[in-house]
Amino acid sequence: MEDSILIATKKILGLSNDYTVFDLDVMTHINAAFGTLNQLGFDPVVISGVDEKWSDLTVEEHVLSQIKTYIYLKVRSIFDPPATSFHLEAMKNQILELEWRLNVFREEALDDT
Question: HSE of 90 in the Cβ direction (CA atoms, 13 Å)?
Answer without folding.
Answer: 6
